[in-house]
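Q: What does the predicted 3D structure of TrmH family RNA methyltransferase look like?
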Amino acid sequence: MVANPTELITSDKNTTVKLVKGLLTQARQRKKQGQTVIEGVHLIDAALRSDYPFVQILVSEAAQHHPEVQQILTRLPTYTPILTLSDALYESIRSLGTGIDIMALINIPAPRLAAISNDCLILNDVQDNGNVGTLLRTAAAVGIHNILCTSSTAQAWSPKTLRAGMGAQFALTIYEHLSVQDILDYVQTPLFATSSHTDTMIYQHDLKQPIAWIMGHEGQGVCDELMQCATPIALPQPNGQESLNVAIAGSLCLYETLRQREYT
């Protein structure tokens, strides 16, 4: 059964419209409200497949009868509020380009950190949304569920990171705004980190036991406090490039871990 949309909204003074606009554009608003916005059919479908609850659905007047939107609406719990926006109003707040105009307001999960003794991925001040999203997507693909983000890491639930992650966030447990000490206190799994100061290649390490992979800042790498507690590993670069993009490096590490465990 399709939930019934409310009356057509045409004013940018509408409370929900103002909230959504702020969440789409301002990191501090997302942090303050504990909410974010997912845009487009793909991300909403990913949330639905994970039974992730929606606070509200917003759809443009023109898109409300689109077959893919109708299919989404039939899968919503009947109590889900739906706002229909005029096409001009929707276009004025969306952050995506031309497409199927539907978005959802959701609460950002805030799980409480407890001791971690299995595989995890630590993002140590990785600042680019695209890199964070790619790493989350790769972690979900290889079956790593716990993600720990230090305080200067790009927001895992920002609209840009959500798009880069293609909805991987809904399959993960993501801890954000952590200090280095939080990680040292709660992660009981051996730490491994890529480093340019070692000659020991990743293929020389036994990665069959649980591992906490650390991926660091795009320019500065993993911070000294974490690196001092980690096993440094190198990735081969026979053509002598200075370094790999952090998302590429992280993906290589995660897939070598998977290869050693399941494909040797």
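A (community wiki): The structure tokens above were generated from the sequence. The chain has ten helices and eleven strands. The first strand starts at residue 8 and ends at 9.
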